[in-house]
Amino acid sequence: MAGPDALQELGGLLARLPGIGERTAQRLAFHMLGQPPGYAAELGRVIAQLHARVQRCGRCGNFCEGPLCRICEDPRREAGVLCIVARVQDLMALERVGAFRGRYHVLHKLLAPLEGVGPMDLPLDALLQRIEPEGVRELIIATPLSVEGEATALYITEVVRSRGIAVSRIASGMPHGGELEYADPITLGRAFDGRRAL
Ligand SMILES: [Zn+2]
Predict the structure, then answer these.
(1) CA of 48 relative to ligand 1 center, distance in Å
(2) How many A from CA of 90 to the centre of ligand 1?
(3) Residue range 117-166, pLDDT digits in tens
(4) pLDDT tens for residues 50-89?
(5) How far does residue 74's CA lie from ligand 1's centre (Å)?
(6) Residue of 5, 30, 167, 192 with fewest CB within 10 Å of its CB?
(7) 126 CA from centroid of ligand 1 (Å)
(8) Ligand 1 mean position to 121 CA, how many Å?
(9) Edge-to-edge strands of the sheet including 166-169?
(10) If you measure from the C-alpha of residue 10 to the centroid of ligand 1, how many angstroms do you get, rounded to a whole number?
């Protein structure tokens, strides 16, 4: 981008965002400059505070701004049933569908031995520690239907097998290898309702 350094710098940073090419980054940078200065100031403030404000829920791993997330704090959520997801985006996709009224456990990772992610890297101790105090009797594993997602589901099933907990897996029918986040709500709702016992 030929132009003032500040615009070049902003364009360069925006171009690092997923799905944003250099031309779009340039367009966005010029757009911000065309807005009242307060907009850029507020955008900058929120971005600067992002990591300090957002933390992981001490219980389920969801993102939140306090010790516990809104779902864990909500007494109307059914206790005893946990849905295991890989990412917070998957939790949000399921919440949009409204198919689940229990609580979650967010892994933030999937087993991927070739990338150096092994069983010890999954937050399963935290999961096991929830079983007794929360009276967990059922796990619904909603990791993606990819190789890593399936391997993770099998591993978790093995880990909890001896604890008398019902384990089920969301059904196929999802786009293969697809992330929950990108599934349409009807497909996701069906996959959830059609889960099978493991
Ligand atoms: Zn939580």
Answers:
(1) 24
(2) 14
(3) 999 999 899 999 999 999 999 999 999 888 899 999 999 999 998 888 99
(4) 999 999 999 999 999 999 999 999 999 998 999 999 999 9
(5) 9
(6) 5
(7) 12
(8) 19
(9) 103-106, 81-85, 138-141, 166-169, 196-197
(10) 35
Measured in Å, residue 72 CA sits from the centre of ligand 1 at 4
Please name the residue that has the structure tokens 């300090």. Answer: 52
CA distance 130 to 117: 23
